Amino acid sequence: MSRFIDAPVALVWEAWTKPEHFVKWWTPRPWQTVAADMVLRPGGLFHTVMRSPEGKEFDNKGMFIDVQSERLIAFTDALDDDWRPTADAFFSALIYFEPEGEGTRYTAYALHKDEAGCKRHVDMGFHEGWGTALTQLQEVVAELKAGRA
């Protein structure tokens, strides 16, 4: 999934990496992200809590594999923050932030261990969900940009 965001990479990076901004866009509405903890370095914790419209909460824990400031974030749920393999590994993600003119090219890849995992993610609404979240990210970035105008 790739999209142009009309803001400099620094603002998109800020919206992704600061939990107070991240919780506003990460989960497609009407779902919510109600908590986010990030230790933004390779081997660092990446923890979110998502809440369904019915109020059920889902705890998600993983690890940052690679972090290159304003360039790349790679994370996985295959490893816990103590480098132990998780039982229910589902996917890894690569998020690229690239300058494009006055804006940012945001590209996200979801990698699965097999075809069945990929199909399961598609069946869960991956494209719609990540697309909606990306639109919400653009909204948060626009707010940040307006606040600095």
TrEMBL record:
* Organism from which the protein derives: Glycocaulis abyssi
Q: What is this protein called?
A: SRPBCC family protein
Question: Which protein family is it in?
Answer: Belongs to the AHA1 family.
Q: Note the CDD domains from the entry.
A: SRPBCC_CalC_Aha1-like_3
Note the InterPro entries from the entry: ASHA1/2-like_C, START-like_dom_sf
Enumerate the spans annotated as Activator of Hsp90 ATPase homologue 1/2-like C-terminal domain: 6-141
Q: What superkingdom heads the lineage?
A: Bacteria
